[in-house]
Amino acid sequence: MSDLYVWLVLIMTAMTTYFIRVFPFLLFNAKRPAPNILLYLGRVLSLGVVGMLIVYSLKDTPFSSPPYGLNEMLAVSCVVVSHLILRVFVLSVVGGTALYMWLVQSAILNKFF
After folding, report:
1. 113: Cβ contacts below 8 Å, ≥ 6 apart
2. pLDDT tens digits for range 94-113
3. Neighbours of 110 (CB within 10 A)
4. How far is CA 65 from CA 62, 70, 74, 81, 102, in A?
């Protein structure tokens, strides 16, 4: 794979990402506001996507073998509690992910079972 090919792929990926991000602002502006159905979907789908991510993240959790899903439940609890306290979504997710990775890598809960 040549360097030119890699650079062309990177440039095309950046241009595509930029276009995808800018397109809604070009399509809907002060002269042409977004339809109500799109505004409704923007409010409702974000919660639905988060719910689906939670289900997808926990679907393969082994609740019948040690540590009985405690790693995942502690991480989810960390996300919920930190979000209720801090109200910063990114910090909550990063904190929960860091806690989960620490629990899994250190296998600290496995020592109790």
Report:
1. 66, 67, 68
2. 999 999 999 999 988 877 77
3. 13
4. 6, 10, 16, 26, 19
